[in-house]
Amino acid sequence: MRQRASLFQQAMGEEFGRLDAALQRFHRLQGEHELEGRVQTGAPRTLLARWLALALGTPRTAVEGEIHFELQASPEAETWTRIFPEQVMRSSMHLHQGGLVERLGPARLCFALQAVDGRLHMRLQRLFFLGIPCPGWLAPRIVAEETGAGQRLQFHIEAAVPLIGVVASYRGYLLLPEEKK
Fold it and tell me: What is the CA radius of gyration of the chain?
């Protein structure tokens, strides 16, 4: 029996095949998986940025150390649990109107996924906070990028809100599980 296309394969269509092999491997995973790696987090600097980070569950202190990543994936939804050195961040994802929607605390982020030179770029299209659409002038500038090489998936995430500052910042890598023959 053939496995159904993963959430990311469905969201990206043919463009999925233009991702680095390591990224394709990671984003095809289904079921429950645990991965390990290293991470470096940044701390929000303003009071409002720290409050938003608390509400979203994003890292609030600058640390470097191990990251434990738990994935629960099916063709319909994925839950990502990132266990940073000093806190846990959990988000869930599903498809909506051909795009990927990530729920992170009280925020719902709608992304378009693009393959650029083998990398995965997640481009924010819309944001809802507490169910209210975020006006364009207040929309965060988000860098959400993954690269892959060999057995590593590398990630760089940063979100900055106008007039508030950086709310989330972390980068690092995860070691991919061995491929089953």
Answer: 16
Burial pattern 144-156, b for ≥16 Cβ within 10 A else e, equals bbbbbeeebbbbe
Closest CA to 58 of 107, 124, 101, 111: 107
* pLDDT the model gives residue 129: 93
The tokens 């760089």 sit on which residue? 156
141 Rama class: left (phi>0) / alpha (psi -120 to 50) / beta: beta
Reported as a single tens digit per residue, the pLDDT across 40-70 is 999 999 999 999 999 999 999 999 999 999 9
Amino acid present at 100: L
CA atoms within 13 A on the CB side of 12: 25
Sign of CA dihedral 38, 43, 92, 125: negative
- Per DSSP (E only), the strands in the chain are 31-41, 64-73, 77-83, 88-96, 99-104, 107-116, 119-129, 132-133, 141-149, 152-161, 165-175
Task: Tell me the pLDDT band of 3, cut-offs 50, 70 and 90.
Answer: confident
Q: What is the pLDDT of residues 68-124, one digit of tens each?
A: 999 999 999 999 999 999 899 999 999 998 899 999 999 999 999 999 999 999 999
- Whether residue 113 contacts residue 100, with contact meaning beta carbons closer than 8 Å, is answered with yes
